[in-house]
């Protein structure tokens, strides 16, 4: 039977407050300074000194500005690091706007296909409600970017620079999502009226043509052929003519995207380790690369990240960046704020419980560019963010190893660093991974 809060209960709670040591002083501090400043532990700043035993030079950070393209920036940053070193082009960037355009366009088609797949379900079914809550957004996954690159290639930023809408995507997203929801009404009605497959496809083609126009107006038209002109760090002039986005990728990057594997750490009961997972209705390119996550222990993720760093290769990773972090200081550490001590309450949760109960999920992707190893163990990690040079130390952050344990959920590693047993798991389960629900936290988009 439900029990209401009584006057006697309130009197007891007030008495508990008054009997808490230092309660009046704490109340004044929090009211004037807020929770974070009042609970900040200065000791964390001293232990997060920015020196690393492995420290890869990656140059000036990029800035995603007012958009949710961190996953895209992080992935393209790992690729541009190679270009910067190989061709000696300091400060070089790949076009985040080019991949943004094609991701938006392909997500529109992906949405339409999911609308058609669920057209027989009630409008208030959880799947349909999940689809309509956010038809498309800026976020994504590593596998989704490689699907774009595999199909469309990539170009230098100088060839397709930023626009107002790529740097501040809110207005464009609002218009595009309005359009997609309206189109969903039409598609569901066509299915309900038993329209032919040809009529449905004709309607969808018209919708995609309009989507393309919206994206062309807001982001520009992606180039199909271009010249790559640059001056290297030694002041030597170069020009490479008549490139396509595909030939540019093959010549200047040349990565086999299939060589890289998404590894996750999801210590929840429903996801046994050493198995492959995907997420229903998570993706962008129909017929392209699909999301595949290999679930491993967090220690495995760290060991493999170190192997890749030791070989001079940076590491894309996804985390819950808002947890125990200060963007001004550029510090991510569970010891940064002592909320337990401040409120005389226990806020501790396990990583699994935070995932299961909605307290945490992947919210942001960045790049690991260094690690400090002491007595054979990692103590802190160097992180390249995509929030410009004003955040952290000229855009770089430091994460404690304890923060990695608690709030890092995904890293992308070249398969050559995985044991043969893990490579066999990927090979054997790739075509029939365990399928997670669309709203599973491992389907969160960075």
Explain what this protein looks like in three dimensions:
- The protein has 446 residues and is of the alpha+beta class.
- It is built from 16 helices and 14 strands.
- The strands form two sheets. Strands 1, 4, 5, 6, 7, 8, 9, 10, 11, 12, 13 and 14 form a twelve-stranded mixed sheet that branches. It has a two-stranded antiparallel sheet with strand order 2-3.
- Strand 8 (325-326) and strand 9 (331-332) form a beta hairpin.
- The protein is globular.
In short:
With 446 residues, the chain is of the alpha+beta class. It has helices at residues 7-19, 23-39, 42-47, 70-87, 96-117, 126-133, 142-152, 164-167, 170-192, 197-219, 245-252, 298-310, 339-343, 351-356, 401-407, 420-429; strands at residues 54-55, 226-231, 237-243, 260-264, 275-279, 293-295, 315-319, 325-326, 331-332, 364-374, 377-384, 396-400, 408-414, 434-436. Strands 1, 4, 5, 6, 7, 8, 9, 10, 11, 12, 13 and 14 form a twelve-stranded mixed β-sheet that branches. A two-stranded antiparallel ribbon has the order 2-3.
């Amino acid at each position: 039977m439900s029990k209401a809060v009584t006057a006697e209960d309130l009197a007891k709670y007030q008495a508990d407050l008054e009997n808490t040591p230092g309660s009046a002083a704490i109340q004044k501090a929090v009211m004037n300074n807020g929770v974070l400043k009042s609970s900040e532990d200065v000791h964390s700043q001293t232990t997060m000194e920015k020196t690393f035993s492995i420290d890869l030079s990656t140059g000036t950070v990029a800035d995603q500005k007012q958009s949710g393209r961190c996953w895209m920036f992080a992935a393209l940053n790992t690729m541009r690091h190679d270009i910067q070193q190989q061709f000696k082009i300091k400060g070089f960037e790949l076009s985040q706007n080019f991949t943004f355009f094609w991701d938006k366009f392909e997500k529109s088609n992906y949405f339409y296909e999911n609308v058609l797949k669920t057209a027989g379900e009630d409008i208030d079914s959880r799947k349909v409600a999940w689809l309509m809550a956010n038809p498309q957004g800026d976020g994504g996954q590593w596998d989704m970017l490689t699907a774009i690159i595999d199909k469309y290639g990539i170009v230098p930023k100088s060839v397709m620079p930023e626009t107002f809408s790529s740097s501040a995507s809110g207005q464009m997203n609002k218009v595009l999502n309005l359009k997609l929801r309206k189109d969903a009404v039409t598609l569901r009605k066509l299915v309900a009226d038993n329209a032919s497959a040809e009529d449905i496809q004709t309607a969808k083609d018209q919708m995609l043509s309009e989507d393309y126009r919206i994206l062309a107006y807001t982001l520009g038209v992606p180039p199909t052929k271009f010249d790559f002109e640059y001056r290297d760090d030694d002041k030597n002039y170069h020009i490479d003519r008549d490139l396509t986005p595909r030939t540019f990728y093959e010549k200047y990057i040349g990565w086999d995207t299939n060589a890289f594997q998404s590894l996750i750490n999801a210590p929840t009961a429903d996801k046994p380790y050493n198995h492959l997972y995907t997420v229903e209705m998570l993706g962008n390119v129909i017929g392209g690369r699909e999301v595949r996550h290999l679930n491993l222990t967090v220690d495995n993720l760290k060991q493999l990240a170190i192997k890749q760093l030791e070989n001079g290769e940076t590491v894309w990773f996804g985390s819950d960046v808002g947890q125990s972090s200060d963007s001004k200081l550029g510090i991510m550490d569970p010891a940064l704020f002592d909320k337990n001590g401040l409120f005389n309450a226990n806020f501790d949760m396990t990583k699994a419980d935070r995932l299961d109960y909605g307290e945490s999920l992947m919210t942001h992707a960045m790049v690991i560019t260094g690690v400090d190893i002491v007595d054979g163990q990692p103590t802190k990690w160097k992180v390249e963010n995509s929030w410009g040079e004003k955040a952290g130390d000229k855009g770089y952050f430091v994460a404690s190893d304890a923060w990695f344990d608690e709030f890092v959920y995904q890293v992308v590693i070249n398969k050559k660093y995985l044991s043969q047993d893990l490579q066999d798991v990927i090979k054997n389960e790739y075509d029939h991974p365990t399928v997670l629900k669309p709203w599973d936290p491992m389907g969160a988009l960075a």
